[in-house]
Amino acid sequence: xxxxxxxxxxxxxxxxxxxxxxxxxxxxxxxxxxxxxxxxxxxxxxxxxxxxxxxxxxxxxxxxxxxxxxxxxxxxxxxxxxxxxxxxxxxxxxxxxxxxxxxxxxxxxxxxxxxxxxxxxxxxxxxxxxxxxxxxxxxxxxxxxxxxxxxxxxxxxxxxxxxxxxxxxxxxxxxxxxxxxxxxxxxxxxxxxxxxxxxxxxxxxxxxxxxxxxxxxxxxxxxxxxxxxxxxxxxxxxxxxxxxxxxxxxxxxxxxxxxxxxxxxxxxxxxxxxxxxxxxxxxxxxxxxxxxxxxxxxxxxxxxxxxxxxxxxxxxxxxxxxxxxxxxxxxxxxxxxxxxxxxxxxxxxxxxxxxxxxxxxxxxxxxxxxxxxxxxxxxxxxxxxxxxxxxxxxxxxxxxxxxxxxxxxxxxxxxxxxxxxxxxxxxxxxxxxxxxxxxxxx
Length: 442
Description:
Elements: H1 7-26, H2 40-51, H3 61-64, H4 67-82, H5 84-94, H6 101-110, H7 119-148, H8 153-168, H9 187-202, H10 204-213, H11 222-246, H12 258-270, H13 287-299, H14 312-326, E1 333-334, E2 337-338, H15 341-368, H16 373-384, H17 399-425
Antiparallel strand pairs: 1-2
Helix pairs in contact: 1-2, 1-4, 1-17, 2-4, 2-17, 4-8, 5-6, 6-7, 7-8, 7-9, 8-9, 9-12, 11-12, 11-13, 13-16, 14-15, 15-16, 15-17, 16-17
Organism: Croceicoccus marinus
Membrane topology: Multi-pass membrane protein
GO cellular component, one term: plasma membrane
């Protein structure tokens, strides 16, 4: 029987329960625009994508789903990004239930914070930042939609709120059929979305450091230093690569002026960090640009936030290990700090598991579909990393392939949390050690 005292097991079960509830709600005739019941697979895929804050879709969100259906989707990716245990604990506090040890452990596991910090403070930070960023972003977008695009105020408010919540939760769902392609030249739409995505992708531990220590770099934790530095490096790499590779592509940046090219290159450098909005036709990207997106999507954003992927810290821990081995150093580390052996093994385990799952899923889908292998691989990485970008093949996949993508989205959102946490909490020292013998490597 499931123990409520074990959040490592409880959290995946609750995410599955939320997916199931979302599937039931989206299967109601009230949820579709034409009043018919959505097929179970369509409802399941959409619910999983929303709860896993991914953004992959098999139907046109504003056309297929009614206002009720879109409201359910918004609620699902808000709770999915905010965290089920975090939300439940918050509601309990609001109801006067208090904040016990079980709540502290569940909140820390869900937010990937195992250092024994104040979980109540973490909860307050998560709530305050979420409310502030989503509120400010929604207000800016709604004002722009109302004044520059002549949308009625209720419609402007809805589109602004939907995109703000989707952006901060790195969900990638849009209330427009073409995502944000209709706003390619509008920085007042693209920039607020980018800022919300970046803030959420940094993760709440970094936000905690920023709140406590401001810009006093020396007082930041090693995690925050790696996450911020890595984020800047990856965003800069993505921007430069996309701008250079797509500069003359007639189907993407080619027809734009220099300013619009820079804006959209920056936007698409941010989105593979697990957000999923697109202002350009991803299916028209050059192959080399797709490869850059593979790299950015697989890494993802910061830990303990709404981003997916193997996480920035995981990648840079592995990079430091390779660098130390190349330079024949005894220890691996960054910023004058060395990593513990357990952290190195966790980073390696998470990366190998992620690569194995993506390889297996890609192989299976390629065996049941005649679609190009590159497009299938893009879809699988996007699903596992909870990105939501697509070359446009999602709706063309057979049912079994969609179920595989559902599994990837779920594992990408919940599995990496539980695997990393289980590795951190489950270390047990044997009372003995086997004799050492080294196989040939390489």
